[in-house]
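Format notes (please read before filing issues)

Several people have asked whether sequences and structure tokens are stored in separate files. They are not. Every record keeps both together, in the order shown below: the sequence lines, then the token lines. Line labels are part of the format and must not be stripped during preprocessing.
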Amino acid sequence: MHWMLMPLRRYADFSGRSRRKEYWMFVLLQLLVGAAVGLLALLLGNTTTTRDQMTMVLNPVLVLAGLFSLFCLIPGLAVTIRRLHDTDRSAWNLLWALVPVGAFVLLYFYIDEGDPGPNRFGEDPKGEDMESGVFA
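Then the structure lines:
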């Protein structure tokens, strides 16, 4: 749980480095919340409107899901940039998302192991754990 919430504690910190565990656990948190909200919306009933319904009826569960997504936008972007920094790549590499095969390139960057030791973006985040005696 610690790793899932770390990006929320570093809400808008775009500097430094984030290890793979921090990035992927945050992605897992978002997937779990999304699945729970989807299941809750299905259990509560109609989540869509038809063309016959002219009034806008917003499902409170979907409104909360939208607010959660909006809340996670900045920490998600920050942890993604810090993950790129861990592999000694700049945030400009996010522009790969604009080309058709860019998602695969970015996936490789996110899976790639970070640089051992310090790089131009900061100290090795794994080194901090080794100094405190926590090996992960």
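For reference, the curators noted about this record: DSSP finds five helices and no strands in the chain. Confidence is low (pLDDT under 50) at residues 130-136.
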